[in-house]
Amino acid sequence: MFDLGLTELLLIGIVALIVVGPKELPMLFRKVGQFVGKARGMAREFTRAMNDAADGTGVKDLSKTLKAASQPVQTGLDSVRKAASDLTKYDPESETGKLAADRQKKVEVAKKTAAKKQEERQEAAKAKEQKSTEKKPKAVAKKTAAKKPAAKKAAAKPATVKAPAQKSNTKSASKKSASKPTSKDKA
Questions:
Q1: pLDDT tens track for 34-92
Q2: How far apart are CA 108 and CA 146, in angstroms?
Q3: CA angle at residue 93 from 87 to 96, to 5 degrees?
């Protein structure tokens, strides 16, 4: 109301304490509080009386019209809401409801026929796969015959692996025999 901050109120309290004195200060604050309360009550009564008088003359309706004119987007949204509320009042017994039910039945029949055709296509694809798998084992048998010589080469590789292992054993034995004469030479 007076737009006073906390520091300003504190300053007023200190000045009042100095001027009035500590004994009479609580009674002064009580009387000031009562006066402010009465002033606010009178302001509320005056505001209510003015609003009631304005409502009686039709100013409230005029203010609603002005608000609607100043906010065209809101009025557009209101008209859309009214139209949408009409759409929610769907009656299945009406002619449009019957037509919608007929369309729904046609859609279901179309879905069933499409599903049957899809199953037939899948069965035909499975039959082709079975025929092609029956032919493939014969071709695979011929290819395995061609791979048999390659398997012989693979068998030869492990033999070469074993040979170096034997050589390493002989080398260690030769090293031992070579180390004995060197020790004799030192002695």
A1: 999 999 999 999 999 998 887 778 777 788 888 777 777 776 777 788 877 766 666 66
A2: 57
A3: 55
